[in-house]
């Protein structure tokens, strides 16, 4: 038995042209031993769904900073919820989700109730995200001797 590296898909909403948030998260994940599929800015929702179906993905990381996040992430999450359960990883969300940057605790809770496994928004977002990653268990896979 060996433990394969955990795999994360990094994506954003289809309207969001910002790139460095995605690159930053890719580096954070890779430094912690994750394999990352970075789908890039303005990610089409269909591409997110296809990438989950094509690989054994452990975590979907959605980052958006253009202010349209609150409006657009529900549809993205709905599309992910249509993916068969065995291909459906937990989905975490972060960034600047509203038009005024940070959102309040009420909105964060609403997003969690919607089905996001966690939501990272404040100045401590990256630190909290790293703690979340350190508690992330990936099942060992059997390999040929
Ligand atoms: C560069 C930039 C652009 C470039 C992007 C180029 C590119 N290829 O990336 C261009 C010019 C295209 C652009 C366009 C726009 N932008 Co702009 N842009 C910026 C700017 C100056 C820097 C963004 C950046 O690269 N930061 C570096 C990365 C590493 O940091 P970050 O994105 O903040 O991400 C960090 C955190 O937010 C956090 N994080 C983000 N996501 C996640 C996810 C998780 C899970 C976790 C844990 C953490 C996390 O971690 C990162 C590291 O700390 C910011 C202002 C600023 N100084 O931040 C505005 C900003 C993001 N843009 C803004 C806006 C409004 C726009 C436009 C709507 C402007 C317009 N009217 O056209 C458009 C939207 C275009 C679109 N379709 O999305 C606003 C967003 C406002 C909001 N959400 O409250 C900002 C904040 C400027 C402002 N103060 O008003 N933009």
Instruction: Label the structural class.
Output: alpha/beta
Distance between the termini: 9 Å
CATH architecture classification name: 3-Layer(aba) Sandwich
CATH class: Alpha Beta
The overall pLDDT average reads 93
Strand order in space, largest sheet: 2-1-3-4-5
Low-confidence stretches: none
In short:
Helix content is 38%, strand content 16%. It has five helices and five strands, in the order βαβαβαβαβα. InterPro entries: Cobalamin-bd, Cobalamin-bd_sf.
Structural features, described:
The protein is an alpha/beta fold. It has one domain (7-134): 3-Layer(aba) Sandwich (Rossmann fold), CATH 3.40.50. The protein contains five helices and five strands, in the order βαβαβαβαβα. It has helices at residues 20-31, 45-54, 69-81, 105-114, 125-134; strands at 7-11, 35-38, 59-64, 91-95, 118-120. It has a five-stranded parallel sheet with strand order 2-1-3-4-5, sandwiched between helices. Strand 3, helix 3 and strand 4 (91-95) form a beta-alpha-beta unit. The longest helix is centred in the middle third of the chain and has 13 residues, at 69-81. The mean pLDDT is 93. Cobalamin binds at residues 15-21, 24-25, 61, 63, 65-67, 92, 94-96, 99-101, 120, 125-126, 129.
Give me the secondary-structure topology.
Elements: E1 7-11, H1 20-31, E2 35-38, H2 45-54, E3 59-64, H3 69-81, E4 91-95, H4 105-114, E5 118-120, H5 125-134
Parallel strand pairs: 1-2, 1-3, 3-4, 4-5
InterPro entries: Cobalamin-bd (IPR006158), Cobalamin-bd_sf (IPR036724)
Protein name: Cobalamin-dependent protein
Domain B12-binding: 5-140
């Amino acid at each position: 038995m060996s433990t394969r590296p955990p795999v994360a898909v990094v994506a954003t909403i289809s309207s969001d042209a910002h790139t460095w948030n995605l690159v930053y998260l890719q580096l954070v994940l890779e430094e912690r031993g994750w394999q990352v599929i970075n789908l890039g800015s303005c990610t089409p929702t269909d591409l997110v769904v296809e990438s989950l179906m094509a690989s054994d993905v452990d975590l979907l990381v959605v980052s958006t900073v253009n202010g349209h996040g609150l409006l657009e992430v529900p549809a993205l999450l709905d599309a992910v919820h249509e993916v068969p359960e065995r291909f459906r990883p937990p989905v975490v969300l972060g960034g600047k989700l509203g038009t005024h940057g940070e959102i309040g605790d009420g909105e964060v809770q609403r997003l969690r109730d919607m089905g996001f496994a966690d939501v990272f928004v404040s100045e401590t977002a990256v630190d909290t995200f790293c703690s979340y990653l350190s508690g992330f268990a990936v099942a060992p896979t059997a390999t040929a001797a």
